[in-house]
Amino acid sequence: MKNFQCKLWISLIFLMFISIDLKAQTSGGMQGPWLKSQLIEPQELAAIISRPGKQEYAVFNIGAVEDIKGAKHIGPVSKAQNLEDFKRALTKLPKSSRIVIYCGCCPFTKCPNVGPAFIAAQKLGFANVKILDLPVNLKTNWTAKGYPLAEVSSN
What we know:
By secondary structure, the chain is an alpha/beta fold. The chain has a single domain, classed as 3-Layer(aba) Sandwich (Oxidized Rhodanese, domain 1), CATH 3.40.250. The strands form two sheets. It has a five-stranded parallel beta sheet with strand order 3-7-6-4-5. It has a two-stranded antiparallel ribbon with strand order 1-2. A hairpin with a 2-residue loop joins strand 1 and strand 2. Helix 3 runs parallel beside helix 4. The longest helix is centred in the first third of the chain and has 22 residues. About 11% of the residues have low confidence.
């Protein structure tokens, strides 16, 4: 009986560790092929892009929202042509580049763009890819907080 109880406790502990690992891959409940360490918080990215000098990240807007300061606009990568445009843009960068992708058109848990863009970057050999963690949307988690947006030209 003691042997059975010992195996039961070990199994429960094992299941607990698996559960913790799965939670590390989510933002607001969305599970994807990324780890929590591959998310970047809005305040962290805002601080980085507000610093004068060389940008630390290549930032890509892979959704249908406003561009944040310094972002390259791709458009929703759930559309095949935009996904190809994203891949083409990535091929112009060294594989060691630090990349941030974001969408922000809807709650992160429903985003049709982040997963395909993240997977495409990984398949192309980019290991330093971060996803901007926007649990609600760009307006709530970025714009309303006063974080920098791209300047809109008046032409």
